[in-house]
Amino acid sequence: MKLHGTMFILVIVGGLNWGLVALGNWMGSNWNVVNLLLGSWPTVENLVYLLVGVSAAVLMFGHKQDCRACNPSGMA
């Protein structure tokens, strides 16, 4: 399902971004990629964060029914 793949990519982007935020804080700099790319558009930046959060919630509750590894009869 295309929506499942899109949500998966958003969750990966969010996870990598949070990892970079932590590394950047330890190094004393801003490595928040979403903020660096979209900081001049705070509404769009917040929309990206909202989409990442919604994607994580949907995957958390619906992952097993869509994932072929978790459910052999799941969708491709």
What does this structure look like?
The protein has three helices and no strands. 5% of the residues are buried. The model has no long low-confidence stretch (mean pLDDT 85). The protein has one domain. The chain is elongated and about 45 Å long. It is an all-alpha fold and 76 residues long. Pfam families: DUF378 (PF04070). Keywords: Membrane, Transmembrane, Transmembrane helix. InterPro entries: DUF378 (IPR007211).
In short:
This protein has 76 residues and is mainly α. It is built from 3 helices and no strands. 75% of the residues lie in helices and 0% in strands.
Beta-strand residue fraction: under 5%
Between the first and last Cα atoms, what is the distance in angstroms? 7 Å
Order of helices and strands: HHH
Main beta sheet: strand number and arrangement?
Answer: none
Strand tally is 0
Low-confidence residue ranges: none
Cα radius of gyration in angstroms = 15 Å
- Estimate percent helicity: over 70%
- Indicate the overall shape: elongated
Number of helices: 3
Class by alpha and beta content: mainly alpha
- Residue-averaged pLDDT: 85
Overall tally of domains: 1
Question: Helix and strand layout, with pairings?
Answer:
Elements: H1 2-27, H2 33-38, H3 42-66
Helix pairs in contact: 1-3
Tag the structure with descriptive keywords.
transmembrane helix, DUF378, membrane, DUF378 domain-containing protein, mainly alpha, 76 residues
